[in-house]
Amino acid sequence: APFIPYTMPLVVGTEQIRQVETDAGRRRVALMEPPVDTSVNSVAAVSAATVSAAAVSGGTFRSHWGLGDDALAVVCVTRLAQELKLEGILAAMESVRALSREWPVRLIIAGSGPAAEVVHHHARRINDEAGRRLVILTGELADPRPAYAAADVVLGMGGSALRGLAFGKPLVVQGEQGFWELLTPETLPTFLWQGWYGSGPGTTGEGIPALTAILARLFDDPGLRRALGSLGRNVVEDRFSLSRAAERQVELYGQFTVSRPGAAEAARAEAVAFARYCSYVAGRRWQRLTGRAATDDFNARPVAAAHIPVPAVSRP
After folding, report:
1. How far apart are the C-alpha atoms of 138 and 175, rounded to whole Å?
2. N or C, fewer C-beta in 10 Å, the chain?
3. For domain 43-239, which CATH number applies: 3.40.50.720, 3.40.50.2000, 3.40.30.10, 1.10.260.40?
4. What is the 3-state secondary structure (H, E, C) of 230-268?
């Protein structure tokens, strides 16, 4: 939010956001990437879990939703929202429809949200035209882990992308304006810089053709799927584990408690922040009056969409 006082310590989730906030004048900006519980988010953990209506093993999940042993399951666990999500969800459906002519592919979308009606309508149309269920809508799952465990490929952004990696699945990162990018050793530095999101064309192109080409490459090569799944699991364990996040959190508390602004500096920062807040509130009211207000507000404007370039050398 633009009205957070500049003297307030800030913890952000990507290197790119840290640079943006530092360039804007903040002096105390730290990085702590979103953590993943690698113990409970794994195929082994789901397989060992007690079978219930809310949490079933990956194999049972596939059986429950009519996925045969030969089906290639592309899984997307997401909120069905207009901002950030809907464009990619509809593109994934079209891509799976094209690929279904050659492979036994199914798209599993787990989630709910304000765009559910649009998503359901599009899925029904594709399934009716195909004469079979190419797109499976599970609705919101109390425990989505079995969906990840059952996947052959995961589509996602943000936390959903990281959970897919924790399950050792090849990941195709979803973004906006046609962005699709496969996680590989070559693309990993980009995601460590800007987060698990993107905007505009990726290295394979953009939109439905890009996603179709990425999925076809993965379907053609089971060995590549295994290798990229192992890469993702290693990345999560090395950089995004809960234990690493806990150590970082304690370290940041120590840093911030011994470094505080003076009273005069804090007062000036609060005055500037109040003025910015008033401007923000006035702007939002005007947007609502004119019908241009985004539902998700700040989340509707990711920093990664600004196309700030990846530095030549990734920061540790």
Report:
1. 22
2. C
3. 3.40.50.2000
4. HHHHHHHHHHCEHHHHHHHHHHHHHHHHCCCCCHHHHHH
